[in-house]
Amino acid sequence: MDGGQASRETELLDPRQGKWISVPSMINNRSFCGLAAVNGLLYAVGGNSGNETLNSVEVYDPRACRWTAAQPMLKKRCDAGVTVFCDQIVVVGGSDENGLVLPSAEVIFHILNFFRLNVVSSPVFENTVTYAPGRSTD
Length: 138
What we know:
Blueprint: E1 10-14, E2 19-23, E3 34-38, E4 41-45, E5 57-61, E6 66-70, E7 81-85, E8 88-92, E9 104-109, E10 114-119
Antiparallel strand pairs: 1-2, 3-4, 4-5, 5-6, 7-8, 8-9, 9-10
């Protein structure tokens, strides 16, 4: 994202050098996308292209120094909450193409390139992800 505009340009922080470095551009323009790192790969999830809300997923492999397209999410999501849990990417809420908040979550099983969609049982607030271990009595 460059000044709020969707962009393909990508920079990563190199902690050894203590500076940002340019890497190859993403496939699609994106702003307000979610990011997650799993097993040495960086995932860019959903967002907005400047013209539409996206369900596409791109994966950056720093060893190959390139982005590749992954299977798209089931729903188009912009500004969703994204976290990693047990090597799975969890995408919560976000807004659809009409700006409505989505009361659902998707799990990306990165090894299988597979998605599962669940409806969230309580309202999503500011697209945050919270993990609270415990047991349900339902």
